[in-house]
Design brief:
- The protein is an alpha+beta fold.
- It has a single domain, classed as 2-Layer Sandwich (Heat Shock Protein 90).
- Helix content is 36%, strand content 25%.
- The strands form two sheets. The protein has a five-stranded mixed sheet. The chain has a two-stranded antiparallel ribbon with strand order 1-3.
- Strand 4 and strand 5 form a beta hairpin.
- Helix 2 crosses helix 4 and helix 4 packs antiparallel against helix 7.
- The longest helix has 18 residues.
- The chain is globular.
């Protein structure tokens, strides 16, 4: 699947539709797709805050979220937790995915979005790490006008945040959406 999405990066502009989408609906689809792994590893999932709609492409955002959730599931030990929270301000909406996994060493953190980079954890704990998942997620986020960021502490977990900027020319001075 990653190879297919990688090959489509250059022709991305031919295959997306930006609309208002419910983040909760997209998140729920990704969680459902990964439900077997949640159950088999006894990983708890929580979704915090009310639903928020953002301008995005549903298919591509679903792929991005799947890469992040899959990584969280790979690197979170049994009986861990993955939580998603949403925050909305006048200027942006953020979706944060936090896990209680093994974390990423600070020395690797700056390189996690590089193509092919698996880091120490990818080499040590996961034989199937390709170094393409976060690279693709980051590239697609940029193409959609979103921003991907990551923070992590070894043995405490990782938090990946997707920021959806609000388009100023669609809002008035108070941040209200103009219709």
């Amino acid at each position: 699947e990653q190879v297919i999405y990688y090959s489509r990066l250059d022709s991305f502009s031919n295959d997306y539709l930006i609309q208002d989408y419910s983040l909760k609906k997209i998140v729920n689809l990704v969680i459902r797709d990964n439900m077997n792994l949640f159950f088999s590893k006894h990983i708890r999932f929580t979704f915090k805050n009310e639903d928020i709609s953002v301008l995005t492409d549903s298919k591509w955002l679903r792929f991005i979220l799947n890469q992040i959730i899959t990584n969280s599931l790979k690197y979170t030990p049994e009986n861990g937790e993955i939580s998603i929270s949403l925050t909305d301000t006048r200027k942006e909406t953020t979706l944060s995915i936090k896990d209680t996994g093994i974390g990423i060493p600070k020395v690797d953190l700056a390189r996690v979005f590089e193509k092919g980079f698996t880091g120490n954890n990818g080499r040590q704990f996961n034989q199937n790490a390709t170094g393409l998942g976060l690279y693709l997620a980051n590239q697609l986020s940029h193409k959609l006008g979103h921003k991907l960021s990551i923070d992590s502490s070894v043995n405490k977990g990782t938090m990946v945040t997707i920021t959806f900027p609000k388009l100023a020319y669609y809002n008035d001075e108070m941040g209200n959406i103009l219709r």
